[in-house]
Amino acid sequence: MTTALRSDPPVLAIVGNPNVGKSVLFNRLTGAYVTVSNYPGTTVEVSRGRARLGALDVEVVDTPGMYALRPISEEEAVARRLLLEEHPRLVLHVVDAKNLQRMLPMTLQLLEAGLPVALALNLLDESEALGFQFDFSALAEALGIPVQGTAGAVNRGMPELLAMLGEQITREAPPPAAPVQYDPVIEEALAEIGTLVGALTALTPRATALLLLQEDDEVLALVRAHVSADAEARVRAIIATVQTRFAQPLTMVVALRRQAAANEIIDRVMHTPDRVPAAPLEWLSRLLMHPVWGLPVLVAVLYAGIYQFVGRFGAGFLVDTLQNRLFGNAEHGLINPWLTRVVIGHLPSLWANLIVGDYGVFTLGVTYAVAIVLPIVGLFFLVFSVLEDSGYLPRLAMLIDRLFKVIGLNGRAVIPLVLGFGCDTMATMVTRVLETKRERVIATLLLALAVPCAAQSGLFLAMLGAVQPYGLAIYIGILALIFLLTGVLSAQLMPGKQAHFYIELPPLRLPRLGNVLTKTYTRLEWYFVEIMPSFLLASLLLWVGSLTLTHGVLAFSPHHGFFGMLERGLDPLAALIGLPTTADVVRHPELQFTGGAILLGGFFRRDFGAAGLWHLFQAHLISAAQVLTASVTLTLFLPCIAQFLVMKRERGLGPTLVMTAFILVVAFGVGALLRIGLQASHLALTLDMAGRR
Question: Which residues make Cβ contacts (< 8 Å) with residue 29, sequence separation at least 6?
Answer without folding.
Answer: 12, 49, 51, 60, 162
